Amino acid sequence: xxxxxxxxxxxxxxxxxxxxxxxxxxxxxxxxxxxxxxxxxxxxxxxxxxxxxxxxxxxxxxxxxxxxxxxxxxxxxxxxxxxxxxxxxxxxxxxxxxxxxxxxxxxxxxxxxxxxxxxxxxxxxxxxxxxxxxxxxxxxxxxxxxxxxxxxxxxxxxxxxxxxxxxxxxxxxxxxxxxxxxxxxxxxxxxxxxxxxxxxxxxxxxxxxxxxxxxxxxxxxxxxxxxxxxxxxxxxxxxxxxxxxxxxxxxxxxxxxxxxxxxxxxxxxxxxxxxxxxxxxxxxxxxxxxxxxxxxxxxxxxxxxxxxxxxxxxxxxxxxxxxxxxxxxxxxxxxxxxxxxxxxxxxxxxxxxxxxxxxxxxxxxxxxxxxxxxxxxxxxxxxxxxxxxxxxxxxxxxxxxxxxxxxxxxxxxxxxxxxxxxxxxxxxxxxxxxxxxxx
Amino acid sequence: xxxxxxxxxxxxxxxxxxxxxxxxxxxxxxxxxxxxxxxxxxxxxxxxxxxxxxxxxxxxxxxxxxxxxxxxxxxxxxxxxxxxxxxxxxxxxxxxxxxxxxxxxxxxxxxxxxxxxxxxxxxxxxxxxxxxxxxxxxxxxxxxxx
Lengths: 439, 146
Known about the structure:
The complex is a heterodimer. Chain A is of the alpha/beta class. Chain A has helices at residues 19-36, 41-49, 71-76, 110-126, 145-156, 169-178, 188-200, 222-232, 345-353, 390-408; strands spanning 90-96, 104-109, 134-137, 160-162, 183-186, 212-215, 235-242, 247-253, 260-262, 267-272, 286-292, 303-309, 311-312, 324-325, 330-331, 336-338, 341-343, 362-367, 374-380, 413-417, 432-434. Chain A has two domains: 13-333, ANL, N-terminal domain (Rossmann fold), CATH 3.40.50.12780; 337-434, ANL, C-terminal domain (GMP Synthetase, Chain A, domain 3). The two termini of chain A are 22 Å apart. By secondary structure, chain B is of the alpha+beta class. Chain B has helices spanning 16-26, 52-61, 82-92, 120-129, 137-145; strands at residues 2-11, 31-38, 42-49, 66-77, 97-104, 110-117, 134-135. In chain B, strands 1, 2, 3, 4, 5, 6 and 7 form a seven-stranded antiparallel beta sheet that branches. Classes of the chains: A alpha/beta, B alpha+beta.
C-alpha cells in the first residue's frame, strides 16, 4: 500500500453548500438553462410539441416535465444543430464515438472551458492534487475529452502537467522517473500495463516518486484498484464524465473514496429505470441522467447516459454535501469500452456493410488475456465473399479490419467462420461476448 | 479448356473435414484430387469431382460455403522438368500462379497439374502457344478413371 496520505481539501465552496442552498442554486440555474435552450431548434421544437414553456419550469420539482435527450437525438442533430450560441462564440470542439460512422460533436465557449477546467481541478484536488505536484497525463489528446479536460484541470489547480499522451509505455515510465512525477492520469487498464512493465523490467519502486493516480474513461473494479495500488504503491482515485455532459469533471472521488461526488452546482443528476423511465430510489441501481446547469455552447437537458450506477445522498465524511455516485456497473445499451474507446456494435455492422459480400451476421468477442483488451470480430463467410485463393481471403480479412478501424478507431482481429455458425436471435441480437471481468 | 474446381471454406474446427468427406462418400461422390490450404483459423479445400454441381448443392444444404472456381489441367510426362517448363512459359507472359496441385494418373506415366493463375485466359493462350496438353473435363475424368 501507499505511504502517501492525502489531506482532505475542498476546492470550491459550492461542494459543501447546505442542501437547501444548493437546491435553490440548482433551481435558479435550471431556469436559466431552460431559457438558454430556446436558442436550440431541437429543444424549441420538443418544448412546443410537449407544451412546455420556460415559465412552466420554476424549480427542481418541474424537472420531470422536461423531455429526455438521447444519443440518437444528438446524432440526428449532427454536427452542430445542438449549439445554443453562434459558432463565432465557440472556443473548442470535442467529439465522442457515435453509434455509427459519425462522432457526436460537442462545443465549448471560453466560459465553458473555464467551468470545465475548474470542475476537473475540483475532483483532482479532492483526490490529492497540490499546486506543487507534477501530473503526467497518459490519455489521448484529440477529439476525446479526457486528455484536454484533465490537462487544463491540472493547470487550473496550479500544478504542472506533462502531456505525455497515450501509449509508448517505456517512455511514460522514463518520464515518470526522470521528472519525478507525483500523479498519473490515464485509464485503469493502461495503468495495469504500466505496472506490468515496471514489474517485468525490475524497475525499483523508489525510482518513481508516484503517489497517486486518477483513473477514468472506462469502468473498473475494486479488485483492479487493490491490484494497482499494491503493485505500484500508490493511491488510485476514480472519476467520471462524458463528453455529451462536459467530459471528465462530472464527478470524482474524495479522500474517503466511497463514491464519486457529483458537482451538483453544475449538473442535476437523476437515476431512472431505463425501461419505465421512472425515478429509482437512492442506493438502487439505475441509469444516470444529467442536466447541465452552466454550459453555454451546448446545454443539455436530461441526457440519458446509458451508464448504470446508484446514487448516495448521505453526507460524506469529507465535508462535501454533494450526492455521490457509485462506480459504473454496466450499460443500458450495448456500448462497449475497449482500450478506453467507446464502441457500439452498430459501428462494426456499418463497417461490414461497406465490405462487399460480407454477411450481416457477426459477433464481437472481447477478452483481456494479459491486461490488454483484445477484440475479435467473427464474420460468417458467404459464397460471394469466399475465394479459393488464400491471398484474396487474407485481403478480405484486411479489408474488414480496415473498415472497422476506420469507423471505430480500433484495430480488431477478424475471424472468418462458417455460415450459420453464429447464434441467431429472435428480436434483439446479442452481438457481444465480453469475457473481461471488469465489473 | 478450363475446368470446374469446387472450393469449400473450412473453419478450423475438429471434425469439419471428416464431416465433409463423409457427406461426399454417402452420396457416392468420388474425389479425383484435392488440395487443402490452411491458416491457423480457417482452411480452403479445393476439390476436383465429376459431379461438382451435385456436390456443391449437397455441401451448401449442409451448411458449407462452396464455390465453383475455374482451374486449368495440364498433362505431363511424370519426369523432371515438366513443371519448371510450364512456370517458365507463364512467367514469360507475366502470369502468376495463385495456387496449384498435382496428381499422378493411374497408368503411372503421366501427371496432371492443376493450376489457378491470376489471369486464366492469358494462361490458357500461353500454354496453347507452347503446345502443352491442356485437358478438358471429359479428358480429365477419363484419366482419373483410368
